Structure formats: C-alpha cells, structure tokens
Amino acid sequence: MQRRGALFGVPGGSGSRKMAAGDIGELLVPHMPTIRVPRSGDRVYKNECAFSYDSPNSEGGLYVCMNTFLAFGREHVERHFRKTGQSVYMHLKRHVREKVKGASGGALPKRRNSKIFLDLDTDDDLNSDDYEYEDEAKLVIFPDHYEIALPNIEELPALVTIACDAVLSSKSPYRKQDPDTWENELPVSKYASNLAQLDNGVRIPPSGWKCARCDLRENLWLNLTDGSVLCGKWFFDSSGGNGHALEHYRDMGYPLAVKLGTITPDGADVYSFQEEEPVLDPHLAKHLAHFGIDMLHMHGTENGLRDNDFKPRVSEWEVIQETGTKLKPMYGPGYTGLKNLGNSCYLSSVMQAIFSIPEFQRAYVGNLPRIFDYSPLDPTQDFNTQMTKLGHGLLSGQYSKPPVKSELIEQVMKEEQKPQQNGISPRMFKAFVSKSHPEFSSNRQQDAQEFFLHLVNLVERNRIGSENPSDVFRFLVEERIQCCQTRKVRYTERVDYLMQLPVAMEAATNKDELIAYELTRREAEANRRPLPELVRAKIPFSACLQAFSEPENVDDFWSSALQAKSAGVKTSRFASFPEYLVVQIKKFTFGLDWVPKKFDVSIDMPDLLDISHLRARGLQPGEEELPDISPPIVIPDDSKDRLMNQLIDPSDIDESSVMQLAEMGFPLEACRKAVYFTGNMGAEVAFNWIIVHMEEPDFAEPLTMPGYGGATSAGASVFGATGLDNQPPEEIIAIITSMGFHRNQAIQALRATNSNLERALDWIFSHPEFEEDSDFVIEMENNANANIISEAKPEGPRVKDGSGMYELFAFISHMGTSTMSGHYVCHIKKEGRWVIYNDHRVCASERPPKDLGYMYFYRRIPS
Question: Which residues of this protein are catalytic (predicted)?
C-alpha cells in the first residue's frame, strides 16, 4: 500500500511509504461499517460518473463508492466525500498502450489478454492489432488518498475482499432498468454454423411478400433452409398470423427462420423452432445471400419492421444524412455528438436542439455548481442533475477534441476519411427520463415530437425555483367555435408548446409527375420489378400555413344556444407568440387499414417566418357569445353505474380493446388510459378519447390511479365537465394535510390543479404568499357547491409574448416510413453555418435538407 497524493495535487505525494499487512487492517477498521457488499437490486455504476461522462478510460479513471456504489470522476469524487463522509472508493482505470512491435515492424501476434477484467460498456476494440489494454483496480481511502492495490486477498479483511469481488463482477445497472435489453443477450443458435440450405433456386423479391399457404402480407418469416415465406403466430410478436411457419417446421424440420422486414446491416429477428426461442445467427449474411438478399443494404421502416433495399428509401436516407458529400468533422464546445444506444436517435436529436437554446444552457449548465452541490444523495435519480450533466457534456467540448497532429497524419496515410469522434453516451440520462414510461424505456424507435413534449413535461415538474426554461416554448391558443345555425360563438384559450402544420397534399405543384410515378410503382410491384426513382410531392409552405388557419368542422358539436347538437366550425389562432416556435409537420397519418403511413413530401420551409397574421383578435363587434351552459351528461345504461361510481378498477381494463388501439400504432400506455377513462365502453369510444387527448404533453404518460395523481371524477375525465360538487376528494386532502399544510391550502391547491396531487404540491410551494384566511376556511367548509365559493384567482399560464417574426435555427429530420422505426438526424445553425448532428458524428453541413424536416425550431427576431 502506498500514499499517492500527486494524483489529486495533495502535498507529499512523492513521500510514499510501505505498510505491513496489519497496518492495512488497522487503516480499514474505522471504515468497515461503511463498506457494503452489493445486494440483489443494488445498481453498481462502474462505467460512468454520476456528474460527468468520465469513465475508467478517462485520464483520472473512475471512483466507485463502496457504500452507495455510485461512480465519480476525479473532479467530483471529493464533492461526494464531503457531502456523505464516505471514505472508501474503488478506483478503476483502463490503460491503453501501443503494442510492442515485432522484428518485422508489425505488432506481435495476438494472445489472450488476461489483464482485462472490467465488464465495461465501452466502444474499445479489445482485439485491435495496434493497441493493448490493461485494467487496474485499487481501493482509495479519503481524505488522505491512501491506495491499496487489488487483488490483495492476503492483506484485506474478508468482507472487503468479498465486496470488491462483487463490485468488479457486477453487471451493468441498465440491464435491470431496461427490460428490452434481453435483445443484447440472445443465445447463438446451435444450428447456425452448420445450417443446411437447399439449392432450389429460390430468390426473395424486395417487396410483394405474402404467405405461401394463405394470403397474409404481414408477420412473414423466411425459412433459412428452403426459402419458404410463411406467416407466424399471433402471440409471438403481437401481430396477426395463422402459424404456417410453425406448421412448416413440424412438417419439414427446418429449424431457423428470419422475420422479413426486420433485416438491417446490424442483424435481424431470427427464431429457432427447435430451440423454441429467439436466437442469434452469426452467419446470417451468408444465409440471406443464398436467397439473393444483401443485408448490408437494408433500412428500417414502418410498424417496427424494416424496409428492404428500396431505392426510394435509400434516396431519402442519403439526402438527409448528406451521404456522398465529404463532410468536415467539427470539434469543440457545442460540437459533441451522442452515441446511439440502439434506436435512441430520437432522444439525441431533440436534446441537441434543446441545448442549442441559451435559456436551457443558462438554466442548467449556467447553474452547474449549485445544482451539483445541492443534488440528492443519488444524483443518478435527479432530473436537474442529469440535465445539467448532459448539457455540460454537450457544450463543454471536453468530449469533442480533434485528433492530435500525429493521429491525423496516420489517418491520412491509412486513407481514413472519417476520424473517430468520442461523443458521449446518454445511457444514464435516457434511463432516468424514460423511467416508468413503457415506450421511451424500451429499445424501440419513438416519435421525436412525443419525446419533446415528454421532456417539456419533465422540465415543468422539476423546475428550479421560479426559473422554467420550457417557458420559451409556451404559448396560448385561442379557439373560436361557432354554431353554424345560430351564428353564436365561444372563445376559449389553451396552452400549447408546438405548432402542428398539416400537409396540404392537394396543393402539390407536381401532381402529374406523382400520378405517373404511382402508376409505374404499382406496375413494378405487381410484376416484381425494381421500383422506379422516387418522385416526392412538392408542397408549398404557404399552402400548409393556409390549411392550419382554415376553419374545421367540429364533430358532435353541442350548441348551448340550441340546447342540442348542431353543426359547428372551429378556428385556431395565437393568443400569444412564444419566444421559440417549434413547428411539427404532420407527416404521419393512418391508412384505411389503420397502418401508420408517412407523407414523403418536400416542403419549402422558410428561413424567415412571419405568422403575425395568425394573431388572435378575441370577441369581435357584432359577435354574440354562446350561453355558458354545459351539455348534459349522457351515459349508456350498461355503463352508467360503473362510471358514476368513480372509474373502473385498473385490473379490469379490457385488454382486447387496448390491443386493438395499440395495433393502430398508438402508445400502449395511452391506449390503456383511453380504455380506462372511457369505462371499458369499447375500442371505438376509446379511440375518440385518444383523438381528443393525443396532443396533450402527458398523452403517453403511464396511467395514474385516482387519489394519487389524477383524481378527477369519472364525469369530468370522460366528458370534460365539472361535477356538481367541486370539492377535492377527502383522501387527497388528508395526504396533503398530513404533510403539515393547512386544509384550506390543500383545497385551494387541488382545485387549481384539477385534484392532481403532485401538481398540487408544486402549486403550494410556488405560492408561499398564500396565507390562511379564517373567513375563507369557514366559507369553504360550509359550502359544498364550488361555484359559490369565493376563491383566489389561480395563476395564469406563463407566456413570453412578442412579435410573430421568426428565424429558423434548427430542424430534426426523420428517415423511414413510420415514427416507430427509421432514424433521426438534427441540423443546427451555429456561428453562421449549418452543422449536422448524426448520432456521435458532428460535421459541417454542405447541403442541409431543410425541405425534408419533421420538426423545425424557430427563434423570435427582436422587433
């Protein structure tokens, strides 16, 4: 054991001294109560610092607390020691050295490296011909920084040895948090190496597949022995099928099949009928080539499936990623990429755009010392800490450094055109922000727009004091509804965070080309010939803006003037303009078969946008308002008792209705909420609920049980009307008063937040000026009808109104035919030029495809 002060700049680092085994034991005795052996369920972080992206590969290595099992880089371990008093840490370091050259000048022959023992999630090529790796572990005792090399079985107490072994052998904590990571641990099929393939001349076409025994065109599996294309079972992957692939195996005994549509350069879904489980096929490329399939030219598409090598789809991927142009890598602050964790590009693109906004930079990175110093004991579970960590990682330039000159020369000599950039892995951030969310916590591709709203919701719920950076997106929408029969109107306002523009397909300027292309495409598919070059619809932006502003019919409109249903029209205008305007192009829709489709269009998005003409004007002279009368609540007799007795029990949710909605492409949790809040009245009624609520920020949030986060009455939830008694539920009032708050505070907060417990607590903390008023309390207690209670006016929405002139500074593009698959890329304008952020690759953009974007970010131009 030795004392190493130089590592931390502690005086006396050169005066190391040897100690006997007994001295080691005596040194550890005071700290033994704080050293724990990881138990089942403990998350052991040994790949990444809780406050930074330092790892064992970093210069200073990584320090794992032997009590909490949290990891810290050199800059942050002292903070944890001061805050918690935990003294014993395991220091992990991976050393990288150039291999010793042989007599001929080449590296010595490779042999098994016994010096690598850390189970790390790194991108190191441990079989590199040019470098060798050595892992080092030791205990470090603070504050004197004593070091004990590991392993040290003879000198260490048994408990310490066991704890160290358990930490070193622990698995990644993210495997516990993400149930979908089983995909990374599939077994290799025992039939893959010696799979027999019949030389029967079968070639699989690029499209037009259908089951050989029925005419199904979905959930199709290619048998890798004889090339038969047959349908799978319904229960295997939640899609339809008659089980003909399994029948074929029982008849012929051919063991392996690959799901058509899942093939990409990275692999495919392979199933072993003999082994009765999904498997890996290391020789899949060869097995597919036998049937004329080149898996190196496949891309992802709709329904979680994948497109084969359609020329139109490849064209889209090439244009958006600027393939074929020599892109210059960018390095330094603000030019750090995010590594793809497997379909995490939707998150990466949104976060790159978010942290290009100064308000978010100031709120998190600008407050870094305060946020880190006051973070909870487990900073991995704190939203503000993880946002600050990610923002600092992207903006500091610490993880985006250009290769040194010697490396550049070597790359030129080797004709390597793409210097490797480090980038950062958002694994810890993704694990936290997607926690308990059934969609974002999976490894499946997601909708970037839905994640944007999910993030805004998290920022709202975790704002730092009065500062809320998401206010820059917030604006008010004025909705004007007019009864067509009486011509009376009603004006209402709602909060929104993005502008959704419809795609005006009818306004395409190249209709003749589109018709000719569609005829040629259908003929090619029918004859199984290569598809023609894609012709993309060209839509004027002005037509989309016009479609947004046009009146739309209101289905089932109830006119309070007529006290009956009538025809109604609705128009939407901006009651305020946000500081940053996010525009989503509504490219995704549903076909007649309820399969999600994407409009593959080109829209001439402007660099300068003026929407001043969309400013709301309010009630106009001569207009007469509709009476403020709520429609009667009509409940079907078979559901009346169930709805009036609060909501159904969550365990009684009709799962068949949930699955019908999920198969339409809606998030699973949203489907469960729709069925729950419509009282199991069927998929059709639940579908209407989805259409009404799908633009809400918490649309895909997990279902919250009444009394603990969403305690609205059944009538209010389903029909949008307040009950006769607006008194919040007593059980929620009791929860808040048990925390020490006054009863009238609890009632006021719950009524201001629609009886949402979590939001009510936020309301109380954000209204410290609210004082107990005895007259108010007496009146509150003596009146059951909330309509006659005099209440303090609730706080209005926070908006930053201004001019309607904007400048484009970022956009996110999607490749593929559905938000459930494909790839996202972000372009951001920095320092006067466009930069493309494609996962960990950050380069100067040569041809930014502004006409193919999905989400556009505009900043207000000061008037």
Answer: 345 (nucleophile), 823 (proton acceptor)
